[in-house]
Specification:
Blueprint lengths: L17 H16 L4 H6 L7 H17 L5 E5 L5 H13 L8 E5 L29 H14 L8 E5 L2 H11 L5 E6 L4 H11 L8 E4 L8 H10 L17 E4 L2
Parallel strand pairs: 1-2, 1-4, 2-3, 4-5
Antiparallel strand pairs: 5-6
Helix pairs in contact: 3-4, 6-7, 7-8
Length: 256
C-alpha cells in the first residue's frame, strides 16, 4: 500500500484521533462545572489544557533559552491567535527583565492566508484555501500587550510590536523602516512558500552567529511550501537542523 497517497486532512488538527478531538470539549465541561473563580481556574491551567499545548510552550521556552546570550530581537512569522507572540514576550519579561532592546515582532494578516501558490500544493494539501487559519485577534492582542506592559519591569519601553498585512509586502517595508534591526530568533510559521521565502531573504542576513532559525512546518506533507522556501534559500548553505526530543514538529538551526 502506498501510504504517501492519503486523503486530505484538516488544515488544523487533522491528524488527531477521535479521543484527541473530544479532549478539549471534555476538559471544557469540567472547567465550567468547577465552582472556583475564573482566576483560580486559570492559575491551575495545567489541569485543563491539552498535553500538546504544554509541549508547545516548553518547546518555545527551550528555543528562547538558546538566544538569551545572543544580541537581537525575536521575529515571529505567523502570529495566529497569539500563543507564540505572548510566550516570547512573557519569557523575555521573566528571564531578561532589563533587556530593553530585545523586541518581539509578530507578522500576520490576521485574516488568514492572503494567497496559496503552486508551491503550496501537494496530494495532502490540495484543499488549503485563501483565508484558512484566520484569527481576527489583532485588537485583542494589542489590549493584552497593554496589560502586559503595565506590570513588567521597564514597561514604559515598548516590547511587543505587531505588523499587520501580507508579509511579502510588509517585511520589505519593515526592513526599510528599521535599518537597525538585528535578529536573534526567527520563528517561521507562515506555512506557505512565498512569505517564508521573503522572510528568509530579508531577516537571515541580519542574524549573527549563535542566532536560532526555527521552522514550524518543515518536512510536513501538508505544508510543502515551507520546505521548498528553505531549500531555495539555503542552496549554498548547509544547515544543521535539530529537533527537541519531546516535540515532533519544530526544526531549528543555530547559525554558525
Amino acid at each position: 500500500m502506498d501510504r504517501t497517497k492519503t486523503a486530505p486532512v484538516k488544515v488544523s488538527g487533522g491528524l488527531r484521533t477521535l479521543a484527541e478531538q473530544q479532549e478539549a470539549a471534555r476538559n471544557r465541561a469540567l472547567f465550567e462545572a468547577n465552582p472556583s473563580s475564573w482566576e483560580t481556574k486559570l492559575e491551575n491551567f495545567p489541569k485543563y489544557v491539552r498535553r500538546q499545548n504544554l509541549t508547545r510552550f516548553l518547546a518555545l521556552y527551550e528555543l528562547f533559552k538558546r538566544v538569551l546570550p545572543v544580541k537581537g530581537s525575536v521575529v515571529e512569522c505567523g502570529v495566529n491567535h497569539g500563543f507564540g507572540l505572548m510566550t516570547w514576550a512573557k519569557l523575555s519579561a521573566i528571564m531578561e527583565p532589563v533587556n530593553l532592546t530585545r523586541r518581539i515582532y509578530g507578522f500576520d494578516t490576521f485574516e488568514g492566508f492572503p494567497g496559496v501558490g503552486a508551491e503550496d500544493r501537494s496530494a495532502a494539501s490540495s484543499h488549503v484555501r485563501v483565508g484558512d487559519l484566520a484569527a481576527d485577534v489583532h485588537d485583542e492582542l494589542e489590549q493584552l500587550v497593554e496589560i502586559y506592559d503595565s506590570t513588567r519591569f521597564l514597561g514604559h519601553v515598548a516590547k511587543v510590536n505587531m505588523v499587520r498585512g501580507d508579509a511579502t509586502r510588509t517585511i520589505p517595508e519593515f526592513i526599510e523602516a528599521n535599518p537597525h534591526l538585528v535578529v536573534s530568533l526567527l520563528y517561521l510559521d507562515f506555512d506557505l512558500y512565498a512569505p517564508t521565502k521573503v522572510a528568509l531573504e530579508h531577516f537571515l542576513p541580519r542574524m549573527p552567529a549563535g542566532a536560532v532559525l526555527a521552522f514550524d512546518e518543515l518536512d510536513n506533507p501538508l505544508w510543502p511550501g515551507e520546505t521548498l522556501a528553505m531549500l531555495e534559500s539555503h542552496a549554498q548553505r548547509r544547515l544543521k537542523l535539530e529537533r527537541l526530543e519531546f516535540d515532533p514538529y519544530i526544526a531549528f538551526a543555530v547559525l554558525q
